[in-house]
Amino acid sequence: MNPLRTLLPALAAFSIATAAYGQTNWEHGRLQVTRDGHYLQYEDGTPFFWLGDTAWELFHRLAREEIAQYLDNRKAKGFNVIQAVVLAEMDGLKRPNQYGDIPLADQDPEKPNESYFQLVDEVITSAYERQLFIGLLPTWGDKVTRMWGGGPEIFTTENAYRYGSWLGNRYKDRENIIWILGGDRPAIHDSVDTRPVWRAMANGILDATGGQALLSYHISGGPNSTSRQIHDEPWLHVNMMQSGHGSGHDVPVWEWITRDRERAPTKPTLDSEPNYEDHPVNPWPAWDPKNGYFNDYDVRKQTYRSVFAGACGVTYGHHSIWQFWSEREEKINHADRYWTEALDRPGAFQVGYLRQLIESRPFKDRVPDQTIVAGGQGKKGEHIRAFRDRRRSYLMIYIPQGRDITVNTSALKAGALRGWWFNPATAETTDLGTLNRTGELQLVAPTQGFGKDWVLVIDHAAAGYPIPDFKR
User: Where is the Putative collagen-binding domain positioned along the sequence (predicted)?
Assistant: First the structure.
């Protein structure tokens, strides 16, 4: 017997959250798409901003006390969606978890191993206690179409439906699950069309949950978001893209978000895998160390610009955390630190600041509006993104590189304005006070205490919005 089985009783490490965070609170109901189709909300209309983290190997590589450590850390930083895979990528069918369990007998999706799924149950419960959603991937994509990786391909339309139905029945009463099919694979590649398999799995989940499930699909990297291949699938509720790690800096994800928002029927969209912090830049087919690693600034540029372009949220990732690299594991793709040393990297804090910033104003009626920037929107690393709300009571502009900016104030309704700067790296603010309103307002970027990038916020004074005191 694996000695880790005896380290803790089944829920000893997992049941600390109620004491740490107060009573759990899910009275808002299940997640759903907003009426306009662009964002997410709870059943009672409370808006929801998706801030995800990629923890792909969570069920497969961590022990219970490690999972508790990870979830506590992510909760404290403001994450609310943890993306994890049941049938994991890294030899997940044959290599057991930390308790000696594999997920399936004979690699058969219709023969689930109860002991393995008891750990999945516990993680979902632990996340619920911390008011975290699990973005649950039933399988990594190589189990449907190998393309690369270990596979093997084990799914057909018949067993995919039954596996989806089994999972759906098991978790139909769990309000904190967002279902994510796919797993780093396109639905169509070359002459292979795997849509029937994914459709069957999705229908199994929906039938078992009485249609209450919210579903998306994690696609491979590149410009082909789900809107290009499966947008019209009725089971797909949220589009996803992966701006990824292999195309260098400043992939124009804002253009892809804009494209997705214009599709009919309207569906929310988000980047579910932008460049990971501390991931080697352009590592395929071979990494040149001169390219270096993506840093927190790279993370900020991509996450802010996708959200300001109109995404319903965004997912952060760290290269060591998705794989949970430790002394027990062999590193993948030039990871440079153990996962426990990566928990408090700057980008993980900074995406939490992004969520706080968005939630500091009414955000369910955000409208991307590039006319706010009166010329000089820039390209690649200099590209600026802006949005306002439908009532024209406030606007925000993300400026990735320091420079003066001219703002078209007609984007807001008539009346006095108040402005402030927000530092995405530190969450510090600088009050500009009342602004003299003209057709075009020129502002000089701050220099003291600010880094490369910042956000300009302008509020209509009559709205009475305070400048928030952001938690850091």
Answer: 367-459
